[in-house]
Write a structure and sequence with these properties.
With 343 residues, the chain is an alpha/beta fold. It has helices at residues 9-22, 32-36, 40-47, 59-66, 82-87, 97-110, 132-144, 163-177, 315-321, 326-331; strands spanning 4-7, 26-30, 53-56, 73-75, 91-94, 116-119, 151-155, 187-191, 204-207, 223-228, 231-235, 240-241, 247-248, 253-258, 275-278, 281-286, 294-297, 308-312, 339-342.
Length: 343
């Protein structure tokens, strides 16, 4: 293929080894959104030797990951078919007493035990139980039916921005944690940015962006995007480049076309901003990003069709162009229509 996502195998291994050295307890690697755009199959195969659990967002992702590993999997969003997950030994989150009752009814009819992880809403206000009384009702219901929680967890919303809010979240979570019956083998786990580095006393930590090389000086980016020039065009002074006359040549120029666009996860917001590397020289995009391609000014570079282009080797740079985060840049790569492979 003309374009490819290259995954640095050694960087991923080094990142996971470092994270494990900082993690007190088990490690759950989040591979939702196609492993943050890296490719879930590729990442799971390599990471299985370094982690204890994998985390996903939905049932479809869970079964995709299950095909690549024997490690336990947890769905942190809703499921379409809880019985299918139970039968497939997929763990999943529960968010309410209502949901717990539904799962218990499925268990009564099937005698297939669910692997439930109770989500505690300590301040993220996205999912989960926020009242101690509701948590007690869930635990009582499970005890009456010979079931227990595989896990209890929360998600820190503001670890890097609000220390006081995080302290409040931790205290709330401790109140819920104390309700777990003695004798249950419930895993207590936390996540949210750099939680793995905060020394919180949990049985397991969930990690995402760190594993892919961002958020800490000791981890290295895993993903790089490469393509090649497909055409070189001479543009005269005063002529336009791309849709909607998004760029006008102030002098005679040479333009190269790269076969990647917003259909591959490179947003139009980076039009006339993105810089890529061709033959060791940084060159700037000109004109609006197209669905399948973008153009760059190569007036000062010796190049030809077929020459290699390093489109992205640091999501932080791309994030700065769109005033967003590495999360958004990387997950945009789920759209990527080229090859993914390790190097």
């Amino acid at each position: 293929m003309l374009s490819k996502i290259l995954l640095n195998k050694q960087n991923l291994i080094d990142n996971l080894i470092y994270i494990n050295s900082q993690c007190k307890g088990k490690l759950c690697l989040m591979v939702k959104a196609n492993a943050y755009g890296h490719g879930d199959k590729e990442i799971v195969r390599l990471a299985s030797d370094f982690v204890d659990f994998f985390g996903v967002s939905n049932q479809t992702e869970a079964f995709s990951v299950k095909a690549e590993t024997d490690k336990p999997i947890i769905v942190f969003g809703g499921c379409e078919d809880y019985f299918k997950c139970m039968a497939g030994q997929i763990g999943f989150a529960i968010f309410s007493f209502r949901q717990a009752k539904m799962i218990v009814e499925i268990y009564k009819h099937s005698q297939v035990k669910p692997r439930m992880h109770l989500c505690i809403n300590t301040g993220m206000n996205r999912y989960g139980v926020r009242e101690v009384t509701e948590c007690k009702k869930i635990i009582s219901l499970l005890e009456k039916n010979g079931l227990e929680l595989d896990g209890m967890y929360t998600h820190f919303s503001s670890l890097t921005t609000d220390e006081e809010y995080t302290k409040n979240q931790i205290q709330k979570f401790e109140d819920f944690r104390a309700l777990i019956p003695k004798g249950w083998s419930t895993i207590v786990h936390v996540g949210g940015g750099r939680s793995v580095m905060e020394n919180y006393n949990a049985d397991m930590h969930r990690v995402g962006l760190y594993a892919y090389g961002y958020g800490n000086d000791f981890v290295k980016p895993v993903l790089k995007v490469e393509s090649q020039i497909v055409d070189v065009v001479k543009v005269k002074k005063g002529e336009h480049v791309g849709y909607l006359c998004g760029f006008t040549a102030k002098e005679d120029m040479t333009i190269a076309t790269i076969p990647l666009g917003y259909g591959d996860g490179f947003p139009r917001k980076i039009s006339n901003k993105l810089e890529v590397q061709i033959n060791g020289v940084m060159v700037k995009s000109v004109g609006n990003i197209c669905m399948d391609s973008f153009m760059v000014d190569v007036s000062d570079v010796k190049c030809k069709a077929g020459d290699r282009v390093i489109v992205m080797d640091d999501a932080k740079y791309m994030a700065s162009l769109i005033a967003s985060t590495e999360y958004e840049v990387l997950t945009n790569m789920t759209k990527f229509r080229g090859e993914r492979k390790f190097f």
